[in-house]
Each structure stands twice: as structure tokens, then as C-alpha cells.
Amino acid sequence: MTRHARNCTAGAVYTYHEKKRDAEASGYGTQNQRVGKDSIKGFDCCCLTLQPCNNPVITADGYLFDKEAIIQYIITKKTEISRKMKEYEKQKKKEESELAELAEAEKQSKINAFLKTEKSIAGNPDGLLNKISNKIATPSVSNMTEGRDKHLPSFWIPSKTPSVKAKQMEKPDKNVLCPMTGKPIRMKDLFDVKFTLVKDPDDKKSLIIKDNRYMCAITHDILGNSVPCAIIRTTGDVVTMECVEKIIKKDWIHPLTGEKLTEKDIIPMQRGGTGYAQTNSNLEGKYERPVLQA
């Protein structure tokens, strides 16, 4: 096959590769790209700050957080929930007042209808009833009276145009949700984590620069993104899953303290970035852009 045949542009079929190439060049359509290991945080990094943890804590699902960051997150979310709850209560009171105004208007319309009927049957020689009924039946047409000055429409602001309907705010959930799993999270559900430092007297580098920072508390194996790890909930020690399977699960006794353990005391940690689909999930990054539709 000649080079010209491979680069033929006279084909009747718009191929997938031509469509993908043109989409990248045009700036339209969603872009998908495989994410490498450098784009995924390490196993010992906080899920919020993406930096190595100074005071690590872990959830029951195995997500690691810096204690300061997760406390600040919970406080911020509680403040936001409190603000939304106040807005919801304000909206609820407004709806109740509107219902009361509608009931009052309906009552007034019934009074007007009654006065009109009485006038047509019995008449009104003194003219007093006629003045009262005319005063009630002819409301002002001005936009600045009867509280209508606060609800004037605006044709320049989209949210205040006459055709826009007011959005009904739903009652906010009082639970603070985990930023990773979406489940309710509380401070008492977080467990302290205790990493065992690698003791190498010849290595003078700073801890954050070292590639091998931590090791298993029992077997002293080096921990990394490619090594499955777990937390012993009672003491917070970080061990490898191999240690759990071969040592701890034999008699369910903590090798360092001698206390009894159960299945719930072992919390598997979420893996760090290795770049392999078998280890990490969601390795595809998406960038959404406008789409041209025919």
C-alpha cells in the first residue's frame, strides 16, 4: 500500500479517527485522556490537600485525611448547612405569609361580592355603603403601592424577569457527607493512623523528599503505592496486606501488643497512584466542551 493510499482523503466514510482528530482541532466535544500515576495522589497523602499527612486519620472505607483538613471541612460544611437551613426556614415563612395573604384576599372578595349583592337588592340611599364598596373594589394600579415596589420585574436580570418562576428550595440534609464516598461522616468515625518511619542513618534527605518514607510496623517491609496496605484500628499501625493474611489472620492477635483482633479491626487503605488499571480505578480524565449538533 502506498503512502498516498494510507492518507487518502477522498473516502465516503467519516472515520472515527478523522472525527477525533477534527474534534481536537476544532475545540468542540468532550476530550478523554488516560491519567498517569503522576496525576494520582500517593497512598500516604490526604484526599483533600493531596499532600503528605502531618496528623493522619482514616475513615472506615480506607480514605486517608489530614486531621486539620478534615476538621476544617466538617466545620465549613456545618456552617453551610446552617445557612441553607436558615434560608429554607425563611422560604417556609414566606410561603405561609403568602398563603395567609391569599386567604385574606379570598375573604375580602367574598365581602365585596356580598356588598354588591346587598346593594343590588336593597339599594343604598345614604351612599355610605356605595363609598365603602367602591373603596374596596377599586385597588390602586400603581406598582409602588401595597408592597409591590419590592417585587418589581427586571428585564435585564434573567432571574428577575416576569416569566421566571421562583425556585422551591428543598430542605437541606443535616448530615456532613464524606468528600470521597458521599456517605455521612463524623469525627468519631475517624481513626488515628500511625506510620512507622524508615530508619536509615545514611539517608539525610527530608522526609517529604524521600521515596521510601514508611515501612510495615511488623515485617518492616517498605510501603508504597504498589504495596496493598491496611490499618489496625485499635492501635493505628500501618501494615501490609501480606502481613495481615500470613501473620495476623492465623490467630487474630496483634503481634506488637498481644490484644485480640477481629475482622472489623482491619481497615484496608485506598491504593496510591501506580498508573495500572488493575490497581487504580477511574484512570480516565474528561474535559467537557461545547458540542456541535446538526
In short:
The chain is of the alpha+beta class and 294 residues long.
In N-to-C order, the SSE pattern is HHEEEHHEEEEEHEE
CATH topology of the domain at 51-115 and 173-193: Herpes Virus-1
- Mind telling me which CATH architecture of the domain at 51-115 and 173-193 this is? 2-Layer Sandwich
C-alpha Rg (nearest Å): 34 Å
Quote the average pLDDT.
Answer: 80
What is the CATH class name of the domain at 51-115 and 173-193?
Answer: Alpha Beta
Parts with pLDDT < 50 across at least 5 consecutive residues: none
Structural category is: alpha+beta
Contiguous helical run count: 5
User: Reading side by side through the largest sheet, how are the strands ordered?
Assistant: 3-2-4
Query: What percentage of the residues does DSSP assign to strands (E)?
Result: 5-15%
Helicity range: 25-40%
Distance between the termini: 35 Å
State the shape.
elongated
How many beta-strand runs? 10
Major beta-sheet overview: 3 strands, antiparallel
What does the secondary structure layout of this molecule look like, with pairings?
Blueprint: H1 3-6, H2 16-26, E1 31-34, E2 56-58, E3 64-66, H3 67-122, H4 128-137, E4 191-192, E5 196-197, E6 214-215, E7 229-232, E8 238-240, H5 241-251, E9 266-268, E10 284-287
Antiparallel strand pairs: 1-10, 2-3, 2-4, 5-6, 7-8, 7-9
Helix pairs in contact: 3-4
